[in-house]
Amino acid sequence: MGETVRLGIDARKEWDGGIGRYIRNLINGLLRSEDLGELHAWVKPDSGMLKLVSENFKPHPERARLYGFWEQFSLRIKANRTPIDLFHAPHYVVPIGLKIPLVVTIHDIIHLIFPKSPFHRRYATAQIRHAIRNAAAVITPSSFSLEELQRFFPEAKGKTIAILHGLEDDFFRESSAKDGEIEQTLQLPQRYLLYVGNHKPHKNLEQLLEVCREVFKDDPDLFLCVTGNKGDEGGRLYNAAARLGLEERVRFLGNLENEALQVCYRRALCFVFPSLYEGFGFPPLEAMASGTPVVAYRVASLPEVIGEGGILISEGDGKEFYEAVRLLVENTEARREWGLKGRAHVKKFSWEAAIREHIAVYRKILSQGLV
Q: 3-state DSSP call for residue 225?
């Protein structure tokens, strides 16, 4: 096994969507590994991790604001003073001037493909380039993200590795006695389609609403349930639903805890995911683990993640998307078959395997003295 690894990690985004899930599962997996010596995590001052101090886990409160100027210098000072062998940045903003080897995970380049503004694109480009140039290794969650990163940043070649994320066992659970109570609390319709995720423009939810309008014409008892953080796009989506006359057919559920989210997946007729860009894509995996059939576009990382476990549609083809949804809504046998396919496919996504691959990256850097 060799000497154990003393690791530092920036965990301040522990509750930030997919990145947060990655951070939480990475930390939990590393703490169960015999290859870890100590794990020092810099967290927000209100993080629950501050209560989890143990022999090999040392959380530190960090007040520096995310995406602020000071964070890169504050973390550098603290990491350089801490007895760690290397530092892992779980997104592309990394400390400046580290004296120890750096590993960075870059999940996607969404801020270059769908930037909020030219400024945001320039900022992301500069930060990603700085991270790549200073990292001993770069990790991406899919081969698609690896190829995209190397296409935009050729300097990433030779130091980038794709490590697929895993999926928590909770999503494989069958129905429980609490399901009925949760259904009543959420006021879930009897029959519904489900979307899970944020509401940013690349998620393509306005086209989903247009598809649902056509599906609903022949099915007056069918609804669309939308979960996830609305962010700045909430008003736009509400307005789009109103413009299409769907105010009474679309339920906005907001952010949900895992237990409630699992009930939503299990009860849905099918999971609809019209996103045009993903570096990985947790929601389709969650739906498949729950036995719920998936319809998505054949774009970005989704063919790699969904594979043969779901129905993949030609990019942007609303008519084909509509036909796939209609098939699953109307055909019980098709729903059952695609549900079984999805459950079989998703079993290959393992956090245990992902943790082993991360540790292999750490060990390679330390054995070769890469800085």
A: strand
**Is it true that domain 5-166+350-368 has CATH number 3.40.50.1110?**
no
Question: Between 199 and 137, whose confidence is greater?
Answer: 137
366 burial (CB, 10 Å; 0-12 / 13-18 / 19+) is middle
Residue 331 CA to residue 338 CA, distance in Å, equals 11
Q: What count of other Cβ atoms lies within 10 Å of the Cβ of residue 143?
A: 12
Domains 5-166+350-368 and 169-346 agree in fold:
yes
The Cα 353–Cα 343 span in angstroms is 18
Model confidence over 138-190: pLDDT tens digits? 999 999 999 999 999 999 999 999 999 999 988 888 887 788 899 999 999 99
Displacement of CA 202 from its chain's centroid (Å): 14
CA 313, CA 324: separation in Å to the nearest integer?
8
Report yes or no: 164 and 349 within 8 Å, Cβ to Cβ: yes
Cα–Cα distance for residue pair 238/247, rounded to 1 Å: 8
Q: What is the pTM of this model?
A: 0.93
* Tokens encoding 284: 């389709």
Which amino acid, one-letter code, is at 50?
Answer: L
* CATH superfamily label, 169-346: Glycogen Phosphorylase B; (3.40.50.2000)
pLDDT bucket at 235, cuts 50 / 70 / 90: confident
Can you tell me the mean pLDDT for 333-356?
96
In whole angstroms, what is the distance from residue 303 CA to residue 99 CA?
39
CA dihedral 176→181→185→186, nearest 10 degrees, is 30
Across residues 260-271, what is the average pLDDT?
Answer: 96
